[in-house]
Amino acid sequence: MKLTPKAAMLAAIEEGKKGSGFVSPNPLVGCVILDRDYNFLAKGYHARLGELHAETHALKSVTDTSRLKGAHMYVTLEPCAHEGRQPSCAKTLATLPLKSVTYGLPDPNPKVSGRGVEILRAAGLEVVRFAELQNELEELAEIFLMNMREGRPFVSVKVASSLDGQVALADGSSQWITSEASRGHVQSLRGFHDAVLTGAGTFHGDNPRLNSRDSRFADKRLPVILLDPDGSCVAALPGSALLQVRPAADVFLVTKPGVKVLSGVTHIELSMRDGEFDLRALVSLLPAYGVHSVFVEAGATTVSAFLRQRLCDRLYVFMAPKILGKGLGWTSALQIPSLEQAVRLENLRVEPLGEDFLFTGRTIFSTRTLPKSLG
C-alpha cells in the first residue's frame, strides 16, 4: 500500500500515542518506514521507558532488510544523537541504506537538538523537517516539550460540568454529572500522566481513589498530590480510598510548614501567599519525585487557582447536556476583569463521548495578573 508523506506522518503520530503513560520522562514518538516506492514497510513506537525507541522498534519488524535500500523513514521527533538506556537512533540510521529521514519536530533536549540531523546528513542521508501537522506533532510530545522548554512538569486540568458550567448542585451533589463514557475517558487520562492532584474539599466530599481503572494502567504507580494547607485531611487519611489503592508514600500531602502528618506519607511543606499555595513552586519540586506531568482533578477553588496562576497547559472540559441552574461553577473563584484578559484555548478539539462532549485545547493566558476572587 502506497502512502503519501502526510499519511505516513499521520500514521507515525497515531503509533506514538500507544506509549502514552509509559515513557516518562521520555517523549512519545512514532515511526513509519516506506520502501523506495513509498509502499508501507513497517511502523513502531516508543512503548516503555528503557525499551526500544520508535525507529529501532520499526526496524525490528522489517523481515526483509533488503527493502531498506532506498527506503524513507518518517518519525515524529528528531532521532536521538546520544547514548542513554538505548543506543543513538541517529547513529543506527546512519549505518543503513535508507534514502531519506523525515522528522516532525526538532528535539529540544540539548543532548540531541540538531545533532541527530547532523549525524544523518554526514552519513549522506536526505533529511527533511516535515512542514505540516505541527499542531498534531506538538500535542503528541507536549509533556516532554514542556519539560525541556520550561524545565517544569506539564499540567492538565480536568473539569466535568453541566451545559451551564456547574460542577455541582447548590447542596454539593455532583455524582454523576457526566456520562459513563466521559468517566471512562478520564480513567485513561489519569494513566497518561505521572500523578493526579486534588484538593482537600474534593477529598472530604468525594473520598476518591484517583487511580486509573483503565486496564492498561492496572500496574502503574500513580501518586496523588493532595493540597491540604491546614492538615484537615490527616485524620481521615488512614481509612480513605486514596490509601486503599496505593502505598502511603504515594500520597504527597502538601501543607503549610509545621503541620503534623501521618508517618509514611510524602510530606511537602510549602509556604502560602495570599491564602493559597504558590503552585509554580510546588510543581518545580515534583521532578525530584519522578513526576513530570500532573492531572488536576479538583474543585472550583483549586481549578481557579491553577488558572489564576497561569499553570494550566491543557484544559479538558467534559460537558454534559444538562442544565443545573444555580450551583457551583467551576470558575466560581476566578475573576476576569475584562474580555482582553479572558483565558483562551488554541488548537481546540471537540469530541463526542456518549451523550457528552469533550472540549480540549492548550490554554493561552493574558499577560496581566488575574484577581483572586470576585470579592
Task: Annotate the secondary structure layout.
Elements: H1 5-17, E1 30-34, E2 40-45, H2 54-60, E3 72-77, H3 89-93, E4 100-105, H4 115-122, E5 126-129, H5 134-140, H6 142-150, E6 154-161, E7 166-169, H7 180-192, E8 195-199, H8 200-206, E9 224-227, E10 251-255, E11 266-269, E12 272-273, E13 276-277, H9 279-285, E14 293-297, H10 300-308, E15 314-319, E16 327-329, E17 344-353, E18 356-364
Parallel strand pairs: 3-4, 4-5, 6-14, 6-15, 8-9, 8-14, 9-10, 10-11
Antiparallel strand pairs: 1-2, 1-3, 7-16, 12-13, 15-18, 17-18
Structure, described:
It contains ten helices and 18 strands. The protein has a nine-stranded mixed β-sheet. A five-stranded mixed β-sheet has the order 2-1-3-4-5. A two-stranded antiparallel ribbon has the order 7-16. It is about 25% helix and about 25% strand. The protein folds into two domains: about 5-145, Cytidine Deaminase, domain 2 (3-Layer(aba) Sandwich); about 150-365, Dihydrofolate Reductase, subunit A (3-Layer(aba) Sandwich). The protein is elongated, with a radius of gyration of 23 Å. The mean pLDDT is about 95. The N and C termini lie far apart (about 65 Å). The chain has about 375 residues and is of the alpha/beta class. It has helices spanning about 5-15, 55-60, 90-95, 115-120, 135-140, 140-150, 180-190, 200-205, 280-285, 300-310; strands at about 30-35, 40-45, 70-75, 100-105, 125-130, 155-160, 165-170, 195-200, 225, 250-255, 265-270, 270-275, 275, 295, 315-320, 325-330, 345-355, 355-365.
